[in-house]
């Protein structure tokens, strides 16, 4: 009788042991799959080429806006290449690209931007190619800004439309960690996309903030109770991370910065974007760590 009970106990223990082992294997496999997916970066940079970069309209004695942008792009590029160099060759499958919306009328700018759509995989990830990415991004983005400033034809910034009709197709890929870096002063305006729905709008300007009465101490109460903000884009972007850089509020309203960030925070949250940050314009040396930390952060 004792022997029978002992055999049964041993059998149950063995079943329990192998069951636990199999479960651990499955969990380990799932963790490994999730990790490899998040290790494939798909980084997009959306540049606002509106008159915010104009040397005539918005001169900045400390450092011009376009020079700050170039510094931010340099940090993004370095974070991307550092990530590539940290991977084994067979694991490399990453992308980085640069967008505008609307596209500038200057064909040279559009041509250069196409050269900045970089795909790196095990077949082309030579040491020479990886080492060339930062220089390519630095030199070619400099040409884009110089050309835009020289043209002096600023047609505005249609970031709302980019989210409404393009971001899903152009910035999000399955099995990648999708990161969108937006370089903007926080305002949005494009002549061809001016939509209003009650107190919601597809654009934001200093004039609109003043017109909406969001330039007084009780702006937040008014913002919440009267439903101000950007018109909601009916898209689930939960697999996108967003870093907004360069918020540069008008000095005429002490609450302008908070209002701009409230518009953006509400809008990004409505699109189910869980990981996002909104940062003010600052010197590139001060922003370098913030940018690289955001990009290197694991989900």
TrEMBL record:
State the superkingdom. Bacteria
Name this polypeptide is given: VWFA domain-containing protein
């Amino acid at each position: 009788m004792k022997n029978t009970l002992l055999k049964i106990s041993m059998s149950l223990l063995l079943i329990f042991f192998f069951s636990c082992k199999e479960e651990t294997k499955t969990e380990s496999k799932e963790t490994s799959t999730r990790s490899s997916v998040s290790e494939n970066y798909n980084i997009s940079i959306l540049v606002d080429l509106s008159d915010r970069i104009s040397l005539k309209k918005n001169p900045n004695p400390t450092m011009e806006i376009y020079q700050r942008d170039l510094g931010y792009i340099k940090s993004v590029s370095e974070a991307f290449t550092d990530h590539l160099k940290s991977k084994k060759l067979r694991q490399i499958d990453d992308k980085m690209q640069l967008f505008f919306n609307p596209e500038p009328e200057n064909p040279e700018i559009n041509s250069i931007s196409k050269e900045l759509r970089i795909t790196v995989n095990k077949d082309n990830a030579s040491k020479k190619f990886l080492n060339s990415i930062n220089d390519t991004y630095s030199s070619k983005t400099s040409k884009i800004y110089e050309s835009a400033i020289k043209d002096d034809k600023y047609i505005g910034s249609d970031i709302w439309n980019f989210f409404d009709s393009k971001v899903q197709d152009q910035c999000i890929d399955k099995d990648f960690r999708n990161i969108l870096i937006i370089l903007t002063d926080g305002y949005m305006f494009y002549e061809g996309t001016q939509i209003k729905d009650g107190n919601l709008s597809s654009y934001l300007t200093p004039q609109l903030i003043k017109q909406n009465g969001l330039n007084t101490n009780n702006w937040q109460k008014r913002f919440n109770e009267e439903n101000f903000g950007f018109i909601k884009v009916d898209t689930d972007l939960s697999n996108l991370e967003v870093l907004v850089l360069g918020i540069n509020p008008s000095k005429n309203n002490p609450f302008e910065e908070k209002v701009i960030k409230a518009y953006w925070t509400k809008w990004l949250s409505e699109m189910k974007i869980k990981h996002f940050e909104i940062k003010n314009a600052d010197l590139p040396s001060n922003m370098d760590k913030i940018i690289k930390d955001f990009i290197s952060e694991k989900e």
